[in-house]
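Hi all, long-time lurker, first post. I run a small reading group and we've been trying to get comfortable going from sequence to structure in the token notation. Rather than ask abstract questions, I figured I'd post a concrete chain and ask someone more experienced to write out its structure so we can walk through it together at our next meeting. Sequence below, copied exactly:
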Amino acid sequence: MSARVMSVLETYSPTQELYSIDEAFLDFTDLYPGRQDPFAYAQQIKRSVQRQVGIPVCVGLGPTKTLAKLANFAAKKWPKTGGVVNLSDPDRREKLMKIVPVDEVWGIGRQLAQQLNGLGIQTVWDLAKQSPQKMQQRFSVVMARTIMELNGISCLDLETVAPAKQQIVCSRTFGRRLTTYGELHAAMAEFTGRACEKLRQQQSVASQVSVFIRTNGFAPHEPQYQRQASRCLVFPASDTRVILATVESLLSSVYHAGFGYYKCGVQLGDISPALAPNQLDLFDDRAGAGKVDGRVMQTVDAINRRYPKGIAVAAAWIDQNWKPRAHCLSPRYTTSWRELPIVHCR
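-- Answer (accepted) --
Happy to help. Here is the structure in token form:
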């Protein structure tokens, strides 16, 4: 559904940044000046997404990304706006900023908002009137850029190409308590495969592998146990088999029998581009093997793209009834042929 929304949005602007699964930035700079009212153009986008995808959206307009986010917040909060707010006008911008708390600014979290409140900065308008230079000295350059963006000075360009992830985590909460090493191993193997596939999709390799296991902290009547372990790889890798061997070793070191485990996960860190030069071992003959391993993983990924979950590198034979129960899934009639509603006409 996210891809469908984004495909509609990209027809309205050649420059698009996919910010999250349900949010995107569009650049209208070269589209509407002198030719079309931006507010009417935004309303047209809203109607198109509703008509073509069936999902309601809100649109915020502004001369900077931070102001556009603030406008989008106002469009969602106050229904009278009709789902579209334009903060290009300085007077309207000031009026809104004076009634919106500072923690609604993009990039201002709870702790940072508390620090600003301690300085007497309660609203977005209070923050916008601060000196960028003084706030940079007290906080960071990010704060200075935020203040400049609130004043209509663009400091953040659209990222048309998503940056590579610096950390990949794959974890799940189980549908029941896991009590044996084999069950945890099966879950950890599947998470490792997913994490490595994401790593290869962005053409990266990881140098650090971490695992964690834990019981349910919200069930104090149950015995509690949680552990985490990490290890640096000798050579950066994206091969599922290589990373899985490390995960298995780490899991063995942290597993302790006698507990009902509620959640586990795999984390890949110290990520770098796969083509970046790395320090090699003079006595390690891995050049040819690396090429073969790369082709094997590419083949596995290609098969799984064509037949989702067609191949699991390891532990697929173990019973997987540990997976989360999905009793309340929404019907997927827009994405699954098998779940299309059936209409009987008499």
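A couple of things your group might point at:
The longest strand covers residues 261-273.
The radius of gyration is 25 Å.
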